[in-house]
Design goal:
With 92 residues, the protein is mainly alpha-helical. The chain contains 4 helices and no strands.
């Protein structure tokens, strides 16, 4: 069973998040479902809120974190093109 929800979120933030979802090949609904599933699993936010989480949590400079993100996104693109991505079903 699903639930339809409504929240007010900044339009620009929504547009940017939707662009990220498109790049990742997932729907915004799947992204929010994954976020909620992780939040329930860990009993809190699945990340530590921070302006620069890579600096706070991993002790790496921002440029290294951005380079790692770029590399990860390239790997995701390769996996998507090879048909190796598994659709998220809403359950972990």
């Amino acid at each position: 069973m699903t639930e339809q929800v409504r929240w007010r979120i900044d339009k620009r933030l929504v547009a940017e998040a939707e662009a990220v979802c498109r790049r990742l090949g997932i729907s915004p609904t799947a992204a929010v479902s994954m976020f909620f599933a992780q939040m329930v699993k860990v009993g809190g936010l699945p990340f530590r809120p921070s302006e620069f989480p890579a600096l706070d949590e991993y002790g790496v400079p921002l440029h290294q974190a951005e380079a790692a993100e770029t590399e990860a996104m390239a790997e995701i693109d390769v996996a998507r093109k090879a048909g190796r991505l598994v659709p998220f079903t809403g359950k972990l």
